[in-house]
Amino acid sequence: MIVKVNNLVKRYKELIALDHFNMEVEEGEILGLLGPNGCGKTTAINCILSLLNFDKGEIEVLGKKMTPDSYDIKKQIGLVPQEVSVFEKLTVKENIDYFCGLYIEDKNLREQYVEEAIEFVGLKKYEKFYPKKLSGGLKRRLNIACGIAHKPRLIFLDEPTVAVDAQSRNFILDGIKKLNKEGSTIIYTTHYLEEIEMLCKRIIIMDNGKSLVSGTKEELKAMITTSEKIIVGFLNIEDETINKMKNIPHVIDVEKDDEYYIIKFENGINNLANLLEFIKENNLTYTKLHSQLPSLNDVFLELTGKELRD
Amino acid sequence: MKNIFRNCIYQGKNLFRDFGFSFWSLIYPLIMAIFFYTALSEVLNSELENINVGVDSENPIVYILEEIDFLNIHEITQDEIVKKLDNEEIDGFIDRDLNIKVKESGINQTIIKEVVEQIKQMEKLNRPIENYDFEADYILDRNQKANSLVIIFYSLIAMVSTYGIFAGIETVSLIQANLSNIGERLNITPLRKSKFLLAGVIVALFLNLFANGILIIFIKYALKINLFNEIKYSAILLIMGNLFGVALGVFIGASNKKSSNVKTLIAIAITLALSFLSGMMNPEIKVMIDENAPILSRINPISIITNNLYRINLLESTKSVGEGILILSIYCIVLIFTSYIFLRRKNYDSI
Amino acid sequence: MTVFKHFIKIALRNKGVILSYTIIFLILSILNGSGNVQRESNFIETRLDIGIIDNSNSELSNSLKDYLKEKNNIIDTKLDEEYIKEQIFLGIADAIIIIPEDFDEKVINKENSIQIYNDDRKTESLQIENQINKFLTFINATYENGEYDLKDVKLALDKKTEVELVESDNKENNRGVVDWFKYYYNFTSYVIMAIYIAAIGLVMTDFTDENIGSRMKISSKKFLQFNKEIYLGQLTVAGMITLIFILGSIVLKGKYIGEVNFEKYVINVVVFSFSILCLTFLINNITRNKFIINAMSTVLSLGTSFMSGVMVPQEVLGENVLKIAKFFPTYYFVKINEMTVNSFLDMKYEISMQLLFAIVFLLMGLYFNKVKQKA
C-alpha cells in the first residue's frame, strides 16, 4: 500500500466534511476519486498531505505516518492542485525549474527534468511566457508540469481538467497515462465520469464525505442490480402493455424517458431475445432499439440516488 | 545554503518584476521627493525679507527710517492706507504722531513698533546723541539654520526605508497554505518554511535598500539637497528601518487572514500615519508632538529614524542614535517573535 | 437595484478597512488643524520664544533678562550645544542667548559679548538682535563715571507707542478660527482624494473579482442603468465619508461656526467630493489593478495637495507649480477656502471649474467603460 487512509474524520465547525473516509492505494495504479462538487475530495487530499488538521483517523503515506515535517515522504510526492498555483512573475520555465529545484538538487539532472517536463506538457513554445499570458488550458498544463517535473513516485492530481478546452484535456489525460506507465502511482480526483472511465483502473466513489464503494470499473458495475438497459421507441403502445412488459424474465423496471422506454434488466442471458419475443407477441412496432451496459453514472445513481453532473 | 540562495534568486525575480514593488519602492519615493521639492524649493531657499513701512511723505521721521537697512519705506497718502494694508503691500503705517496702523498682529508689525518706540525712548532717555554708538555690535552670532522643512525629506527617507513591509506581506502570503495557492503547493514540497521566509526577508531587505540608495542618490544629485554628511550611523539607521519594515510586513501578513488587498492598505495607512506624526507632511506636527507628548516621537519608529537622521547629519549630534537603534531592535525582535508564533502552525483548520 | 445592493454589500463587508482608514485620516486632520483660535481684537506684539543662559548673573545681565522677559516668552534650554542647535533647527526656539561671565566688562568695551544661536534668515532673528543691541546701546549711552543708569534706561524703555488695528471689510474677523477651518478643510481635500480612490477602488476590485462585471455584461441590464447603480453605490459610500469629515469640523469647532462662513466650506467640500468621486469613477474604469489604484490614491492625493497649497500655502508655491495645479480640482477647492466669500457669486468661477472637472472625469469614465465592454 502506498497510501492508506483509515476512518478519517474532518469537521468544519458544524459541517462534517469527511465522515469516516477510507482509502487504499496500491503502488503503480491510477486511482480515481469520484464524487460531485463539494463531496470532500479536496479536503481528503489536503488531509492526506498534512495541510489540514483532522479530527480522527490514521493516514499512512509510503508506509509511514504523514506529518507536516515528513520531508522524506514529501520528496517523493507531487501535487497538482485544483487551482493554478504558480508564481505570476516567473516565466513558464522558471516556474517549473523553481518547483523542480525544491526536490532535485543536482543542476544537470534538474535541467534535464525541466526540459522533459516542458516537452511533456507541450509548452516548449511558451517557455519564456509569463503565466498571465497563457490561456486557461495552457495554465493548467503549466500547473501540472510544476507538480510532476521531479518525477515523483506518488502524484496527486486534483481536478486538473476543470475549465479546460477539449484539446488540452486530451493532452492532459494522455500525459497522465504516460506518467503512470513510467512508474508513478496516481491519485486522480474528478467529477467527470468519462475521464475516470478512460483513465482509472480502480475507483473510489465519494459522497457527503464518505467513501461509498471502491473497486475496478467492472466490480463496481457488477455491484448494482441493473446490469443492462435496453432503450426502445414504440410507435403504438398502451400502458397496459407496458405493465405486462414487467413480467418478462429479469426485467426490474420500465421507465419512460421522452419518447423512449428504458427497460432495465438484472443479470441474465437472452434478455434481448426475450424482449423481441414480447414485441412480436404483442404486435408492437418499434422505431429504435439498442442495448446499453450500465455506466458509472448508473452506479453512482443507484448508490446515492442522485445524478453525477456539474 | 544553496537552497536559500536559489530561493532568493527566484523570490527576488518574482518581487522585482512585480509592478507593486517597483512602484512603491522605486518610483513612488522619487515622485514624492519631486513633489516635496517643487512645493518647498522656494521655502527652502528663503532669504530675509525687508519690512515694508508706509509713511506720509511729509513725515520727518522718513530720514531716520531710511537709515535702517531692513526697512523699505513707501511714501503714501492718507487715503491709500487701508487699501495698501489690505493688499499686504505694507506691513504697517506710521503717522506723524508716531502712532502705527496695522491690519494684523505679526512679527513685522512688532518690529515696526519697536523701531518707532526706540525713537520715542531715545527722546525720553534724554542723553546727547553722541552717546549712542549704533556702530557697536554686542552680538556674537552663532548661526544655526532653522530648517524644519528639511525634516520632510528625512521623514520621506525614513518612510521608504520601511517599505520592505510590502515584500514582507507578500512572502508570508506565498508560504502560508491558508493564504495562497502557492503556499498550499509549497507546503507539500520538502522546502522548509523557515528557509523560504528567510530568503524572502533577505530579498526584501536587499531590494529595498537598493531602492533607498536610488532615492538618496536622486535627492543628492538630481535635486541637489545635501542630506547625508555622516555615512556610518545614517546607514545603520536605514538598515534598521528596513529590518523594521520587513518585520512589520511579516507580522501583518502572518497575524490575520485578510486579503492581500486589505493588508496592503493596512501597511500604507500605518506607514503614512507614522510618517505624518514624524513630520512628513508638516514639520509643525512633529514640533507639537515633541512639546506635548515627547514619548510619542521617541517610540514612533519613523520618528526615531527621522530625528536621528537630521541630528546626525545636520546637527552633528549622535547622542540619541544608540537609544533609537535599541528601540528599533526591540520592535524587530518582538514583531519577528510574534510572527513566528503565528507562523509556527504547520497545518490548518481550514484552507 | 441588484447592482447597487451588491455594491453596498461589498462595501459593508469592507467597512472595517474603510472606517479605520477614515478614522486615521480624521485624526491626522485634527492634529493638522490644532492651534490657537483666540479672537484678535487688539494689536498683540509678537512674542518670540527665546532661551537665556546667564553665566554672569550681574545686575546688568539681570536687567537685560528682565527686559527680554517682558517682550518675549522664555523657554527652557540647557547649556548643551547639540540641544540648543536642535531647538533652533526645529523652530522650538527663535533664539538662544548665552550671556558670558565677563559680561559687564565686555559691554563697556563694546565687544561682541552675547552669543546668540539663531537662524539669520529669519525676521525673528532681526527682532531679537535689535532688542539686545538697543538695550545695550542705551546702557552705554548712560555710562558715566564708571556707572550705568539702569533706572533711566528702564523708564525710557517703558515708553510705548500706539498701534491701531485697522478693521477691514472682511466679515471673517477671527483669524484663528478662520485659519482653523481653512486648514481643516484644505486638508480634507487630501483625505477625500486618498480615501475615495483607495476605498471605492477596493470595493470595485472585489466587485470585479466576483465576476459581476461580466455577468452584468451578458445580462439584460442596460449599460447606463448598470453604471447608474454603480455610481449610486459609490455616491453613498463617498457621501458617508464626506459627512464624517463635515461632522468632524462641527464636533471640534462647532461653537465657532457662526464666526466663519461655514456654508462656504460645506458647499465647497460637497462640490469637491463630487468631482473627486467622478475622478474615482474614471480611475475605476481605467484599471482594476489594486496596486495601480493604491498607487494612484497616494500619488494623486499627495501630489495635488502639495501642488495646490494644502500642505504649504499657495502663496509660497512657485508659479510653475501652480500652473500645473490648475489642472486639478484641488487647486480651486483650496482657492475657495483661502478667499473671502461674501456671496455665492464670489466663488462661482472656482465652483464651476470643479464641476467642469467632474463632468469631464465622468464622461471619460463612461467612455473607458464603453471601450472595455466592447473589448
What does this structure look like?
The complex is a heterotrimer of chains A (310), B (351) and C (375). Chain A folds into two domains: 3-221, P-loop containing nucleotide triphosphate hydrolases (Rossmann fold); 225-293, Alpha-Beta Plaits, CATH 3.30.70. Chain A contains eleven helices and 14 strands. Chain A has helices at residues 41-48, 71-74, 92-101, 107-121, 136-148, 166-181, 193-199, 217-223, 239-245, 271-281, 296-304, and strands at residues 3-12, 15-25, 30-34, 56-61, 64-65, 77-80, 154-158, 185-190, 202-207, 210-216, 226-234, 251-257, 260-266, 286-292. In chain A, the strands form three sheets. A six-stranded mixed β-sheet of chain A has the order 6-7-8-3-9-10, with helices on both faces. In chain A, a hairpin with a 2-residue loop joins strand 9 (202-207) and strand 10 (210-216). Chain B is mainly α and 351 residues long. Chain B folds into two domains: 2-43 and 149-344, no CATH class; 51-131, D-Maltodextrin-Binding Protein, domain 2 (3-Layer(aba) Sandwich), CATH 3.40.190. Chain B has helices at residues 2-16, 19-44, 61-65, 81-86, 107-125, 150-161, 164-175, 181-187, 193-222, 232-255, 260-277, 283-292, 294-299, 301-314, 321-344; strands at residues 51-55, 71-75, 92-94, 100-102, 139-143. The longest helix of chain B is centred in the middle third of the chain and has 30 residues, at 193-222. Chain C has helices at residues 2-13, 15-33, 59-71, 81-90, 103-108, 123-141, 150-157, 175-209, 212-218, 223-253, 262-286, 290-308, 319-325, 329-338, 348-374, and strands at 49-54, 73-74, 95-99, 114-118, 163-165. In chain C, strand 1, helix 3 and strand 2 form a beta-alpha-beta unit. In chain C, helix 1 packs across helix 10 and helix 2 packs antiparallel against helix 8. The model of chain C has no long low-confidence stretch (mean pLDDT 83). Chain B: The chain crosses the membrane at residues 21-40, 151-175, 196-219, 231-252, 264-281, 324-343. Chain B: This is ABC transporter permease.
Observed structural traits:
heterotrimer, B: 351 residues, mainly alpha, D-Maltodextrin-Binding Protein, domain 2, 2 domains, four-stranded mixed beta sheet, 15 helices, 5 strands, elongated, C: 375 residues, abc type-2 transporter like fold, transport (chain A), DrrA1/2-like_C (chain A), ABC transporter ATP-binding protein (chain A), ATP binding (chain A)
